[in-house]
Specification:
Blueprint (H helix, E strand, L loop, with lengths): L5 H23 L8 H30 L3 E5 L9 H7 L3 H10 L4 H5 L11 H15 L4 E6 L7 E5 L2 E5 L12 E2 L5 E5 L2 E6 L5 E6 L2 E13 L5 E8 L9 H5 L3 H6 L18 H25 L6 H4 E6 L6 H12 L4 H11 E4 L10 E3 H7 L1 H21 L3 H8 L2 E2 L2 E3 H7 L3 E4 L2 H11 L1 H6 L4 E3 L6 H6 L3 H11 L20 H25 L21 E6 L8 H17 L7 E6 L7 H17 L9 E6 L4 H7 L5 E4 L11 H7 L3 E4 L3 H10 L12 H5 L8 H8 L10 H12 L10 H15 L2 H13 L6 H13 L4
Parallel strand pairs: 1-2, 1-11, 2-10, 11-12, 12-16, 16-17, 18-19, 18-21, 19-20, 21-22
Antiparallel strand pairs: 3-4, 5-9, 6-9, 7-8, 9-10, 13-15, 14-15
Helix pairs in contact: 1-2, 1-4, 6-32, 11-12, 11-14, 13-14, 14-15, 21-31, 22-23, 22-28, 23-29
Bound molecules: ligand 26W.
The site of ligand 26W has 21 residues, from helix 6.
């Protein structure tokens, strides 16, 4: 951590107190005494921002001046989490802030807790984007990121009687102190209308648009501050504050909603992470991100270049999944029509600058838009897609005799749909999966025909996480433990973490490890006691005392609820444990099973799994026989900040998805970095982490591999399992008919995702967990070896791999 000498620190703290007081009066009309924690938070955030901006502008100027190749990262989702500690620490101002707040006689943790957690994402994809930006900034790569400034982030999860309800997430109710509105750089985005064909300078047929809608996209910049202060911009587009977006004529025609439609385009992050095709606004959102960002990219390029001759060399664009894939037809169109570039050249340049990351093989998550919707909303882009696809299919027909099936499989336009993954692959020079097994699955199944046609186009870049965000700032006690032993080089060079293995067998280190873990558990327990209350249908708190203490084994599964992630299998294991304890409570390891996660509003089965967990908690947590040995905890409204409280307190990380379903998983890396041991299936990044840790220190692997699962099924021959699943329909858990119906629905889903096939070995593995936990010294040595093996799983390494295999930028 960067230090200052005490004398200057004191002086600086005094002037910071003065500056803050002045800001409170001039911007909030409050004296320090009157200011609430929320207002003091915003005032202090502005103080930090002022320090950040100097470097922010310098970086921008430097990149412009040096005409270097630049990366533009486009994503519909970002989950940056709370930024105050990250930003203030990265510019070495945290001690100063601490001293200043002390001088103000205020409580810093209470002030920091007032920061909103920008929920501009729904899960792994959004948080990965945030970790990647942290590494791009820290490694000082010339980059800029684009997204949407949703008025309402991912919904707020309110659970009443075990049922998830979705409430709007008004994260902008108070100003966001980290953003700067750049009104003068607003751009117009066009929708609908009809095309008029004419020829460009080189004779290609190109289209103009008439009778279209025009929407203003206004940019808001958030500086992403890297370690030691280098920064990059996250530019978020908004249609909200642009009154011109109001279609008066439509209003006069009485079409209220259509009139206001263009103002609300950037309003809501679409909650449904899996199949929301057809959502008109979602398509408008994706094109708003693409069109506004492309206009901005080309404006920045033309500041330093008169022709497009260097465009293919100076620009690199990464699309985060298919959501920004419309970038491909839009860039071709702009180069071909607005800059009179021959069609073929426009296509080649677009392909040369674009690369696509795939994050899932789930059929329902592969975006396919209705052709009529895209034809109406984006007529010119649709025409470009038609022409691009026609040439591509013609090409196949010319070179391949057995082209029929191939064309049907690879064509962008098929069955009335626009297949965005096919468009992304055809329009990119590189396509990557996010873990080795996932990329191999893309090559061997989902995109097999594309891979056989263009083997060099497919590369793997396994995910990572930011050790600065998820270890240094999330678990400062453990970070100090590490720095005390191996120095602080690991903060920017995570390969050095492997040196920690030398302390795994050191008893002093093992004891200190446990002291830290216990402190983090106590912090989580006090959080649970203050903020985590079980509420009934009327929102009234019903929960009674919490029987958990820091001697419990903390077993966490925190992630989006989806059947392939198999929270249901974890729930069934708890029922088996409950029955076991009822039979014989002696010699048991007390276990707290911690769950957190949201699910899409329309995903009934996943909602029923959440409901089941609450019903199990209701039964187990208060049962006199089991309550001191087994507790079920559900942390409501899971987000980045909640993960930062749960992960440092966890002994076990559940990564139990069915083999071949989790593209990568990133919480597995966050937990391991914080010293949790992983109960893991052979899936996603679990595999690469287990290889890095080594068989010896990765004892809790279980379940069948993709190949083994092919002809495997549960024979209903395990009495413990049969008894547990019977509880789903024998009314022993349901408090009413509605719950009974929900749990019976889950009974019908037991044959899906091999929940029962892997449950036996899951149960056996958990017995091994209980046994090892009885030997704290040995457990600590396992944990320290696991931490020491997470070196490759930093986004710093990820970015180096992206740069080597795809971008070739110069830091
Ligand atoms: C169209 C709606 C939609 C929105 C988001 C479909 C799919 C998504 C994401 C791709 C879902 C997602 O977050 N995938 C997760 O991405 C992580 C980062 O690469 C991986 O670690 C997870 O395995 C993957 O499920």
């Amino acid at each position: 951590m960067i230090k200052m000498n005490s004398l200057d620190l004191n002086l600086l703290a005094d002037s910071l107190v003065e500056k803050t007081k002045r800001y409170l009066i001039s911007h909030m009309g409050k004296t320090l005494e009157e200011a609430r924690d929320e207002e003091l938070f915003r005032a202090l955030a502005h103080m930090v921002r002022d320090e950040i901006m100097l470097n922010f502008l310098e970086t921008e100027r430097a990149i412009q001046k040096n005409k270097i190749r630049r990366l533009y990262y486009l994503s519909m989702e970002y989950l940056p989490g709370r930024l105050f500690v990250n930003n203030a620490s990265n510019i070495a101002h945290m001690d100063l802030i601490q001293l200043a707040v002390q001088k103000m006689n205020r409580n810093l943790p209470n002030i920091l807790a007032k920061e909103n957690d920008p929920g501009l994402g729904s899960g792994g994809l959004g948080r990965l984007a945030a970790c990647l930006l942290d590494s791009l900034a820290t490694l000082q790569y010339p980059a800029l990121a684009y997204g949407l400034r949703y008025q309402y982030g991912t919904f707020e999860q309110q659970i009443r009687d075990g049922i998830q309800n979705e409430a709007p997430d008004c994260w902008l109710i108070n100003e966001n102190p980290w953003e700067i509105r750049q009104d003068l750089e607003k751009v117009i985005v066009k929708y609908s209308g009809h095309t008029k064909t004419f020829r460009n300078f080189v004779g290609d047929y190109v289209e103009t648009l008439e009778g279209n809608e025009e929407v203003w996209a206004v940019p808001y910049d958030m500086p992403i501050v890297g370690y030691k202060g280098s920064s990059l911009a996250l530019r978020l587009w908004s249609t909200k504050e642009s009154p011109r977006n109001f279609e008066l004529q439509r209003l006069n025609a009485g079409k209220i909603d259509e009139a206001a439609e263009n103002i609300i385009i950037s309003d809501v992050l679409y909650p449904n992470e899996l199949n929301e095709t057809g959502k008109r606004i979602r398509l408008k959102q994706e094109f708003l991100l693409v069109s506004a960002s492309l206009q901005d990219i080309i404006r920045r390029y033309l500041v330093m270049h008169d022709t497009f001759a260097d465009f293919a060399d100076k620009v690199r664009i990464q699309i985060n999944d298919t959501h920004p894939a419309l970038l491909i037809p839009e860039l071709i169109r702009i180069l071909n029509k607005d800059h009179d570039m021959p069609w073929k050249v426009a296509v080649d340049i677009t392909r040369a600058v674009t690369s696509y990351t795939n994050h899932t093989i789930m059929r329902e998550a592969l975006e396919e838009w209705e052709q009529p919707l895209m034809k109406t909303l984006l007529p010119r882009q649709y025409k470009v897609i038609e022409k691009l696809n026609h040439e591509f299919c013609e090409d196949i027909r010319k070179n391949r005799h057995d082209s029929h099936d191939l064309v049907r499989n690879l064509s962008i336009l098929e069955h009335g749909k626009v297949r965005m993954a096919n468009l992304s692959i055809i329009g990119s020079h590189k396509v990557n999966g996010v873990s080795a097994v996932h990329t191999n699955l893309l090559k061997s199944s989902v995109f097999k025909d594309f891979y056989e046609m263009w083997p060099d186009r497919f590369v793997n870049v396994t995910n990572g996480v930011s050790q600065r965000f998820w270890l240094l700032y999330t678990n400062p006690l453990l970070a100090q433990f590490i720095t005390d032993r191996i120095g602080d080089g690991w903060i920017v060079d995570f390969t050095q973490i492997k040196k920690l293995a030398d302390y795994a067998e050191d008893s002093q280190s093992q004891n200190e490890f446990w002291q830290i873990r216990k402190k983090n558990k106590d912090r989580f327990i006090s959080y649970l006691k203050h903020y985590c209350k079980v509420k009934n249908a009327h929102g009234k708190v019903v929960s009674t005392p919490l029987f958990i203490d820091h001697n419990f084994l903390f077993d966490a599964q925190i992630k989006r609820f989806h059947e392939y992630k198999r929270q249901l299998m974890d729930a069934l294991h708890i029922l088996m444990l409950y029955n076991d304890i009822q039979e014989n409570p002696s010699g048991r390891t007390p276990r707290a099973c911690i769950f957190a996660g949201k699910t899409a509003a329309g995903y009934i089965t996943a909602k029923n799994i959440i409901r089941l967990l609450f019903a199990i908690g209701r039964k187990v947590n208060h049962d006199p026989v089991t309550r001191r040995l087994l507790q079920v905890v559900f942390v409501e409204n899971y987000n980045v900040s909640k993960a930062q409280i749960i992960i440092p307190a966890s002994d076990i990380s559940e990564q139990i998805s069915m083999a071949g379903t989790e593209a990568s998983g990133t919480s597995v890396m966050k937990f391991a970095m914080n010293g949790a041991l992983t109960v893991a299936t052979h899936d996603g990044a679990n595999i690469e982490l287990s290889e890095s840790v080594g068989e010896k220190w990765w004892p809790f692997r279980f379940g069948l591999t993709v190949e083994q699962l092919e002809n495997a099924k549960y024979e209903y021959n395990n009495p413990k399992i049969n008894r547990a699943i019977e509880m789903l329909r024998d009314h022993s858990l349901a408090a009413n008919d509605d719950e009974h119906r929900a749990f019976c629905e889950l009974y019908t889903r037991l044959t899906h995702w091999h929940v029962l096939t892997d449950l036996e070995s899951f149960y056996q593995t958990q017995i091994g967990v209980d046994e090892l936990f009885k030997n704290p010294a040995l457990w600590a040595s396992y944990a320290i070896h696991n931490i020491a093996s997470t070196g490759p799983f930093t986004t710093d390494n990820c970015i180096q791999n992206y740069n080597q295999r795809i971008w070739q930028l110069t830091p």
